[in-house]
Amino acid sequence: MSDLTKLKHEFAKSSIFLVAIGDEKRQSIIIALMDQKIIRRGLQVTDLVDVTGLSRPAVSHHLKILKDVSLVDYRSEGTKNFYYLSHENKEINKLKALLDDVTEVIKCNRQL
Amino acid sequence: MSDLTKLKHEFAKSSIFLVAIGDEKRQSIIIALMDQKIIRRGLQVTDLVDVTGLSRPAVSHHLKILKDVSLVDYRSEGTKNFYYLSHENKEINKLKALLDDVTEVIKCNRQL
DNA sequence: TTTAATGGTTTAAAATAATAAACCAAGAAA
DNA sequence: TTTCTTGGTTTATTATTTTAAACCATTAAA
Fold first, then answer.
1. Cβ–Cβ under 8 Å, residues B74 and B83
2. Residue among B91, B81, B19, B16 nearest B48 (CA)
3. Is A39 on the interface with B (CB under 8 A)?
4. Count of domains in chain B?
5. Residue A70: which CATH number?
6. Mutation target vs B (from A1, A4, A11; most B CBs, 10 A cutoff)
7. pLDDT band at B6 (very low <50, low <70, confident <90, very high)
8. What was the pLDDT predicted at B35?
9. B102·A39 Cβ contact <8 A
10. Given a cut of 90, is residue B3 above it in pLDDT?
């Protein structure tokens, strides 16, 4: 399998992650989760509703997408769920590696 | 302006770029443009129609989006337009810097 | 000066995604 | 047990994207 074919696969796999973090509504959720002044133990859905101005079903929907790409994680305490940014940056690192590969290909092409 | 506020702005600005490269149809265009065995002098719209299996208006539409985020550039020769990946990686580098910042914030939060 | 080739644009239709309302389930508190 | 809180899910609607058809403009070739 050629390097370009591998890159193509990596690119396709990154698609879901890129779309997930590209949406501005989801970005506002990510930003809220980054703000430790509020978080500390994680944010509840209702907190995110307040901060983002989105409805509860919308927050729930977007959180599901962010959970699916392993960017967000949560911990349950009774009926309460506390959401936080996943400590593992696997997807972020994969994307960084992909961007490096693309830059490399462009650089090589330029030298031809 | 706090670091987080700056990050928020950077994030929002990256949104268009993330959505642009997140789409699988556009990724297939990017991949085709990366393949120097075909390119050399750049690819024409009709070449991209063949490679991607998309219609001409669709290719034209997606190329416009990729041009708008400065990922794709082109050169005209008569009626022919030759498309290629922009040699400047400004947007890619901006995104890499953003991802680094996000990773940094997550790391800091973890240590609290 | 016709005619053919290339490709961008506009518009209407189709596909997809996002949203809110209504509902359901589980745990905590009364 | 009953009631309240928290929050996930399903469905129908709305909004957004994507697409193709039809059209127009430009340049090259005949």
1. yes
2. B81
3. yes
4. 1
5. 1.10.10.10
6. A11
7. confident
8. 85
9. no
10. no
Output the pLDDT for position A96: 95
Q: What is the pLDDT of residue A20?
A: 96
What single-letter amino acid sits at B44?
Answer: Q
Rg from Cα positions in chain A:
17
Domain encompassing residue B76: 3-110
Helix (H) or strand (E) holding A72: strand A72-77
Q: If you measure CA to CA, which chain B residue comes closest to A94?
A: B99
- Please give residues of chain A from 39 to 98 whose alpha-adjacent beta carbon (CB) lies under 7 Å from any atom of strand C: 54-58, 61-62, 65, 77-79
A1 touches chain B (CB under 8 A): no
Task: Please work out, in degrees rounded to the nearest 5, the angle formed at the alpha carbon of residue A18 by the alpha carbons of B112 and B92.
Answer: 90
- pLDDT lower than 50: segments of chain A: none
A80 contacts chain B (CB < 8 A): no
Percentage of chain B modeled with pLDDT above 90: 71
Residue A12 has a pLDDT of 85
Query: Residue A25: closest CA among chain B residues belongs to which residue?
Result: B12
